[in-house]
Amino acid sequence: DTKNSVICEVPKDTDNDNNEGYHMGNTKMTSNDAAKYCKDRKMDLVRIPNKDVNMIVFNLAAKNNLGRYWINGNDREKEGTWVYTNNRELTYKNWQAGEPNNWGGSQHCILGAYFPNGFWDDFNCDTKNSVICEVPKDTDNDNNEGYHMGNTKMTFDDAVKYCKDRKMDLVRIPNNSVNMIVFNLAAKNNLGRYWINGNDREKEGTWVYTNNRELTYKNWQAGEPNNWGGSQHCILGVYFPNGFWDDFNCDTKNAVICEIAKGDTDDANEEYEETDSTGKVVKRNYRVSNAKKTFDDAVKYCKSQPMDLVRITNADNNEFVYNLAVKYKIGRYWINGNDKEKEGTWVYTNNKELTYKNWQSGEPNNSGGSQHCIVGAYYPNGFWDDFNCDTKNRVVCELVKGDTDDSNEEYEETDSTGKVVKRNYRVNNAKMTFDDAVKYCKDNQMDLVKITNANNNGFVYNLAVKYKIGRYWINGNDRAKEGTWVDTNNKELTYKNWQSGEPNNSGGSQHCIVGAYYPNGFWDDFNCDTKNAVICELVKGGSGTDEDNGDNGKVTEDSNEEYEEKDNNGKVVKRNYRVSNAKTFDDAVKYCKDKQMDLVRITNADNNKFVYNLAVKYKIGRYWINGNDREKEGTWVDTNNKELTYKNWQSGEPNNSGGSQHCIVGAYYPNGFWDDFNCDTKNRVICELVRGDTGTASGKGTDDSNNVIFKDNEGKVISINYQINNAKMNFDDAVKYCKDKQMDVVRISNAEINTFVFKLSEKYGLGKYWINGNDRAVDGTWVDTNNKELPYKNWQKGEPNNGGGVQHCIQGGYYSDGFWDDINCDVKISVICESRKSKDSSGKGDTDANNGLYVIIKDNEGKGTGKLVIDKGTEDSTNGQILIIRDKDDKGSEALNYGKYVITKESETKVVSTSYHLTNAKMNFDDAVKYCKDKQMDLVKIPNEEVNAVVFKKAAKYNLETYWLNGNDRSKEGTWVDTDNNVLTYKNWSTGEPNNNGGNKHCLQGSNNLNGYWEASDCNGLNSVVCVRIS
């Protein structure tokens, strides 16, 4: 690929006068990357509206030696029709003679400076050129701040149409600043009263825009809105002074202010009406998005609106949607339909089969074996094509009114305490298994319908009759214990309405409840894997028992049951257990890990019986057992990847029913027998903490039984303890795993240690394993997790090569003889942890060691006294090294300062380690907090002057111009707190700061230009990031 430059335009109120208000990127990039680069800076790729702007930009590029640069324009959708990135046609062009010629059939983007004097050329969009960005232009009507005003008074609906006809929207007011701009504009132009985009026609008191989104800002006059006369459902400005609003009759006539539609087609609100097969009128509202997304992202996007990806129900509906796509020039668009589950069986996202299809001749053909989703507009006249679901196409969402999926039925009752309970129901005719029905309801923030009494049962049954859904699931099962019917919260049902002769558990597999199999609302037990309709409910009010959502029995979370046994070596092992609520297998493993425990392992028959009785005691029903055969069918291993030495399967189990049962549950069968189960189902959790366990293998040394004796690079004697884990994990998880054991990922400080560790890995059959080192901060600068440069490296010839540009961590064991390789930090390999101690041969003073730093504390006579002298060479710890200072009584002194050294206050010494991670990637404050959190770190906090100096020096070293610091005053102006809501005790403001200039500077940033002094900044601005981990 060739490489060229980028130009972006900066806001006109910036200080960048030398570049006429434009921003230029430093690197070459493709057209798509250039557009994204500008968008990330809240700007647009530079547009050329006329000859004067063309020459300004051309000369700017020349002045800054940009070479070739992208211009905002392409003809990707239709050859020869050149449009901006918002799909509007270019009104000015300046082609070189003979251009555009679409040479090679792949030139669909515009380049400046390829020819002299500002002439343009069409170019391949995937080549790399310079970037120039500009601030988005709202409108060409500068005199009216980007708004258009109508000359006549009109009703609300006519005002909406008037703006829409001009490809604009009725003015929206998102905040107070915009409110006053519009108010003053109306006054300046003598408009009098004017419509504001908002109404509560659908639901009294719920004010929404014309695209049905709720208003996030309102500015009502005192006493308004009052819906005077019961007919005031639209919003008016300037009825009251100072920009306050009033609700008004939508049919009165008032002035109109339009604004450019934000996001172009994203705010389209088209409506289509049809009559369904029952004679019922169905209205469909459409929203068109110009953004391209994969099929799954399109479904998710529509759901977030909240709408559905467009369904095509008949030929008229198909023609309407196709014409909509043509009108908004969106090109190909997704249609709601896929055959992912079964080739050739096309279903909607709710799993109902399509009743109407309009395939192009020869389609669908599943070309390449990967076309499982539907697009429209690939062929003319609305014919369909099957397409790869991971390609990106435009999106049309719909909101259907009158469909059963959007039913909102309400039932009210009084519970046993006399409190009123309201139940809202959602009916879905799509058939699904019991577990899928539970998940479907949960995904909609609801529960599968629970029946609490006869009246409630009659209401739900009539609801099923009304919507003609046939059989439907009722929240209840006896999976854990035959004949004991409980809901999904594991509570026993207090009301049942069985048909005579039911439940009978026919065939031994009927463990769930359906309604409407028998008339008049009687129930039947049914196989949970059959597919029936779904009714979800949302319960409001009541005593709270119906809203536990699986959190009942919380008392069990504090259970502390203990079991004692002897292992194979005769060693006593104590196991402490903790019982918790229902989770998937993976969530159960994570939950236990977060508690510094493991999901329960069963080691023998006695242990199995104890755990089973524990489950019975706490009435938890089914519970997960630590074991799965995900990697290899029939090979059952624990979460450390060790094969189970004890199993207690029920007769006929494991059978991998349905091909998806790869985890183990207890208590599905009586007497502690096991069953294989789908790992994504939710079962109760038992965690265990094992004390006295022999653990994972340790390297056996020549001096201590658990240690290996080496000399470090300075000749000091050190003792290293190793712990080996064959479980595979990524680098960050490996660091955390070792840290949880108060250890570090193995460090290789010389050839002797490298050879020993390599042989250790061969002895235990580890294969590849992590070595403590990475070059994430600066490519090619390899540092350990304390940010110290590695003193020793042993690369294989040709390594490190940063293959694919993503290899920033070190693995051993890939090459023979202990040579190293750089590798992607997200791959999963084995782990070796280590802890180090120094050996003080003199016996004088106290010694300690961590991460290779040796701290020796003595007085001037070599004795431990109250007067402390730190050995020469240990003063500097700006990279997170540790000094531990103790007095003669082994107590810490009063001061605590982790930026320079650590003095402990407790009676026993603590080791505190500070690690920093810096990135030049720009992001806003909240993204910076999340970025650090994802690395198990915090956005850097500054507790004192020494730490401030450390962070400032590191930022300067890695060329971080401005960087976020952990502090904000969002909650209360002038009260600066960190992300844990602790008030900052140290501040280092620059002169005149914080000044909250503009009213939106609520986050804390450091700057190289201010020599470590701070300033307040807009939290949505973009700065570099410094993360810290203190342990």
TrEMBL record:
A GO MF label: carbohydrate binding
Keywords: Disulfide bond, Lectin
CDD domains: CLECT_selectins_like
Domain of life: Eukaryota
One family name in Pfam for this protein: Lectin_C
InterPro entries (UniProt xref): C-type_lectin-like, C-type_lectin-like/link_sf, C-type_lectin_CS, CLec_Tetranectin-domain, CTDL_fold, Selectin_CTLD
Keyword Disulfide bond found: yes
Region Disordered, residue ranges: 544-568
The keyword Protease appears for this protein: no
Residue intervals of the C-type lectin domain: 22-134, 147-259, 286-398, 425-537, 577-688, 722-834, 911-1028
Protein name: Lectin 1
